[in-house]
TrEMBL record:
UniProt keyword annotations, A-Z: ATP-binding, Nucleotide-binding, Transport
Protein name (database record): Iron complex transport system ATP-binding protein
GO MF annotation terms: ATP binding; ATP hydrolysis activity
Domain ABC transporter: 3-235
């Protein structure tokens, strides 16, 4: 499923946060959005998955304008994992994952046995077998993230949007979640904080700064010292990961 973003602009209190962003995500690709804090990454993603309404511009999935789709039609095409997931009321892991099935459920036609099998399968996929009846609020940060990945997967959408899915997780959970996402063969567009994770998993990387796209290409094209210096203001040395053959970014201390 192909995603096209056409000249999106979005302001908050008259301040332009996203400034004329256009980009295309090809079907089946895993694309990372990288940039300093406050550059507009999360705001851009919220314009894509309809939390915000753009001041101008449009988002298209396979040529259809997203703004013209209702919530059920949108959910069948695109699943979302947000950075903030503040749950104010508790529910079980099973019920949290089942929320992802709402787009496919109908009052009189839903096969409850089949729905349960889909949810249980996703819970197993993310390594939470046996947690079905656990309280979501009682889970660790990594377990909550894996539950939310399962919820996104059961939507069976071909496009998934993620806002820093590995943020605040220890290294083991970070790679576990990225491995799960990578092997789904979906179209993925995700903001990513860790440059080496972006390099390892992404087919393409988009650089964002001050509300604008300032570059895009393969990890080999984008993760070079000059471009990283321009984006983040830090010095780096680039080596090659001996396993993935992707760039390995080493940050050079200034002291």
């Amino acid at each position: 499923m192909k995603l096209d973003v056409k000249d999106i602009k979005y302001s908050i209190e008259s301040k332009l946060i996203v400034n004329g962003v256009s980009l295309g995500i090809e079907e089946g690709s895993f694309v990372g959005l990288v940039g300093p804090n406050g550059c507009g990454k999360s705001t851009l993603l919220k314009n894509i998955y309809k939390v915000y309404k753009p001041d101008s511009g449009a988002v298209f999935i396979d040529g259809e304008e997203l703004a013209k789709m209702n919530s059920r039609e949108t959910a069948k095409r695109m699943s979302v994992m947000q950075q903030e997931n503040n749950v104010e009321f508790d529910m079980t892991v099973y019920d949290m994952v089942m929320i992802g099935r709402f787009a496919h459920q109908h009052m009189f036609k839903t096969d409850k046995i089949a729905e349960r099998e889909i949810v249980i399968s996703a819970i197993k996929e993310v390594g939470l077998e046996g947690y079905e009846d656990r309280s979501f609020l009682s889970l660790s940060g990594g377990e909550k993230q894996r539950t939310l990945v399962a919820r996104a997967l059961v939507q069976k959408a071909s496009l998934i949007i993620l806002d820093e899915p590995t943020n605040h997780l220890d290294i083991g959970y970070q790679y576990q979640i990225m491995n799960i996402l990578k092997k789904q063969n979906l179209t993925v567009f995700s903001s990513i904080h860790d440059l080496n994770i972006a390099s390892c998993y992404c087919d393409r990387v988009v650089f964002m700064k001050s509300g604008q796209i300032v570059g895009a290409g393969t990890p080999q094209e984008m993760f070079v010292p000059e471009k990283i210096k321009h984006l983040f203001g830090v010095d780096t040395k680039i080596t090659q990961n001996p396993v993935t053959k992707k760039p390995n970014i080493i940050f050079i201390p200034s002291v």
